[in-house]
Write a structure and sequence with these properties.
Blueprint: H1 5-8, H2 10-26, H3 31-44, H4 48-55, E1 70-73, H5 79-82, E2 90-92, E3 95-102, E4 110-112, E5 163-167, H6 179-198, E6 204-209, H7 217-227, E7 234-240, E8 256-261, H8 264-276, E9 297-300, H9 302-305
Parallel strand pairs: 1-2, 1-9, 6-7, 6-9, 7-8
Antiparallel strand pairs: 3-4, 3-5
Helix pairs in contact: 3-8
């Protein structure tokens, strides 16, 4: 997971990322993603806060703008979008394997990998130069290139040099971030904080799932968002099998925080069972019911999302 391998040993580099690419494409998002989307659709898609955010959105039609729900993730598998979340309501802070860039980079341009492509990865996790496992089909337009045509080592569509996934790696100074995604998240966050400051009835829930301490970026982002909101209107629910407590206890001592010791999917299922006991809120004129009232942001981390279900976790004991 370090970019220098693309020069020192391309077979190792494309073996690692080719395996990830193939696995993510061949794996369906687990049940938890669809449950979270169900909450979004039933409780947040059409409430009054969604309409306020979308009505004030700049640069996107209302139907394309995020509403009273936003997902921030460090996963690089694009699973949130695969289950139907709008691109403008997802921030992938480390990028993902579906978008590629020049390894140098010669420009900041990025492009998507062909839908039919698969890497040829050997049993010892190497991707030798030559033909891929499934080649990209020829483009309908001669001017369009993907850099994946007939090769197991993708090439930049501009300069012809090596291409790489647009993912933030360790020791990486050449990553091309998605500036539009970052702008969408910053604009959404500003809108939510402004609405909460003006409306004491607005409740914001930050649901963080499986974000560990090894790469604590998401943990810092959720605690930062919490600290920008009115103390009596914001709640952080942190789901983690090892570190469910807040990190910045002193600055967040006035806020409501709910630590849940458990792994992602079992806790999501438990929340779903609790929500099923509440009155429905699909009516656009009604407010969401607790504990998911107001405007939440769902966050996830790659480690916990792939952890096996923990049937022993007492996920409901803090509710």
């Amino acid at each position: 997971c370090q970019p220098h391998w693309i020069e020192e040993d391309p077979d190792i580099f494309f073996g690692f990322w080719g395996m990830c690419f193939n696995d993510y494409r061949n794996t369906e998002p687990h049940e938890g993603y669809r449950l979270i989307k169900k909450w979004r659709d039933a409780r947040f898609a059409r409430n009054k806060y969604s309409r306020l955010i979308q009505g004030a959105w700049k640069g996107k039609p209302e139907e394309c703008a995020p509403g009273a729900f936003f997902s921030i993730t460090s996963n690089v598998d694009e699973h949130f979008k695969k289950v139907g979340f709008k691109p403008a309501e997802v921030r992938e802070i480390h990028g993902h394997t579906e978008v590629w860039q020049c390894a140098e980079p010669c420009t900041k341009q990025t492009w998507r990998a062909p839908e039919d492509y698969r890497f040829n990865v050997t049993a010892d996790l190497l991707a030798p130069a030559g033909d891929p496992a499934t080649a990209a089909k020829a483009s309908e337009k001669d001017a369009e290139r993907t850099g994946f045509e007939g090769t197991n080592h993708p090439q930049c569509i501009n300069c012809g040099g090596a291409a790489r996934p647009a993912i933030l790696m360790f020791g990486d100074y050449k990553w091309v971030d998605d500036d539009e995604q970052e702008e969408d998240y910053c604009q959404w966050r500003k809108a939510v904080c402004s609405i909460a400051a003006d409306d004491p009835e607005c409740k914001v829930v930050v649901l963080e799932i499986g974000c560990g301490n090894r790469v604590p970026t998401i943990r810092r982002m959720t605690e930062s968002l919490l600290s920008d909101l009115p103390t009596r209107q914001a709640t952080l629910i942190r789901v983690n099998p090892d570190f469910p407590e807040v990190d910045n206890e002193e600055d967040l001592k006035e806020y409501k925080t709910i630590p849940i010791l458990g792994t992602g999917l079992p806790v999501i299922r438990q929340i779903e069972r609790l929500l099923n006991g509440l009155a429905p809120t699909a009516d656009s004129s009604s407010k969401p019911a607790a504990p998911t009232s107001g405007t939440p942001t769902a966050s996830s981390d790659s480690g916990a999302e792939k952890a096996p279900p923990d049937t022993k976790a007492d996920a409901g004991r803090l509710w």
